[in-house]
Structure formats: structure tokens, C-alpha cells
């Protein structure tokens, strides 16, 4: 008669609308969009978007961050930080990828930390300093010829 729903409830996106002034700490499992004014600390497992009319005086921590408005504070993301042509960031940014569109402003410091798969960088660096296989083979052949001349 009454069955329990085994469906998982999906998180709802969080929206701070134009005309809203919010202070405090927000932790969200979903995307967050700021079109009003937010002061405090905001962390999200999803994407944080500061709209064109949005303003954040805070620390933003999210998977991806898009700034089309104003952010005064620090931004930390393992994914992409996109500052659009209307966006302004005043503060320190840490991201996996940084994109600043023409007209976008970043006044502060930035650090891009792209995680490199283990082995790939080491192999690439070793290969860059190692002569091509053909050259290594020719060198061995030359050494063998010299050894033959000395022996014979």
C-alpha cells in the first residue's frame, strides 16, 4: 500500500537573488548562484557562480567557480576558475585551470596547480633528456667498432 521510495533525493541548487544581502557560512552539496550580496564563507561540491549583479565579500571554495560580478576575497577550486568579461576578482585565487576573458579583471595573486598523473611527467622529463633511440643505437655500434679495432 505505502511503499518507501528508494530514490535518492537530489540536492537543490542554492540561489541568492538580486536584492538579497546574506551574511554567514554556507556549505552546499549543489551548485550555488549569487545574484545578490554575500559576505562570509561559501563552500560547494558543485559550481559557484557570481552573476553580473552579484557581489561576494568572502572566501569561495567550489569544484568550479564562475565570476561575472565582483568577488573580494579568496577563491579556491580544483577545477576551472572562469572570470568573464564583466567579472572582477580582488584577492588570491587557487585553481586547476584559470580563464580570464577579455575585459575580466584579476587584481591579486593566482596559482594554477594542474595535477599531473604520476609517471607521465617523470617519463616525459626523462624522454626529453634522453637521445632518440636511433642515436643511442648508432653510438653503441660506434663503440663496438672501436672495440673491434682495438682487439684486432
Automatic annotation (TrEMBL):
<feature type="region of interest" description="Disordered">
    <location>
        <begin position="1"/>
        <end position="24"/>
    </location>
</feature>
<comment type="similarity">
    <text>Belongs to the bactofilin family.</text>
</comment>
<dbReference type="InterPro" id="IPR007607">
    <property type="entry name" value="BacA/B"/>
</dbReference>
<protein>
    <recommendedName>
        <fullName>Polymer-forming cytoskeletal protein</fullName>
    </recommendedName>
</protein>
<dbReference type="Pfam" id="PF04519">
    <property type="entry name" value="Bactofilin"/>
</dbReference>
<feature type="region of interest" description="Disordered">
    <location>
        <begin position="119"/>
        <end position="152"/>
    </location>
</feature>
<feature type="compositionally biased region" description="Basic and acidic residues">
    <location>
        <begin position="130"/>
        <end position="143"/>
    </location>
</feature>
Amino acid at each position: 500500500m505505502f511503499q518507501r521510495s528508494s530514490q535518492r533525493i537530489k540536492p537543490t541548487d542554492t540561489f541568492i537573488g538580486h536584492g538579497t544581502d546574506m551574511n554567514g557560512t554556507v556549505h552546499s552539496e549543489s551548485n550555488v548562484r549569487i545574484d545578490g550580496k554575500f559576505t562570509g564563507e561559501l563552500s560547494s561540491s558543485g559550481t559557484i557562480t557570481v552573476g553580473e549583479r552579484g557581489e561576494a565579500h568572502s572566501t569561495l571554495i567550489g569544484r568550479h567557480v564562475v565570476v561575472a560580478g565582483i568577488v573580494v576575497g579568496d577563491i579556491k577550486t580544483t577545477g576551472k576558475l572562469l572570470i568573464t568579461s564583466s567579472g572582477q576578482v580582488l584577492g588570491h585565487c587557487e585553481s586547476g585551470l584559470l580563464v580570464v576573458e577579455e575585459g575580466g579583471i584579476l587584481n591579486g595573486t593566482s596559482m594554477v596547480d594542474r595535477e599531473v598523473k604520476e609517471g607521465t611527467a617523470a617519463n616525459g622529463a626523462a624522454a626529453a633528456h634522453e637521445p632518440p633511440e636511433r642515436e643511442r643505437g648508432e653510438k653503441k655500434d660506434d663503440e663496438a667498432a672501436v672495440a673491434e679495432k682495438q682487439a684486432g
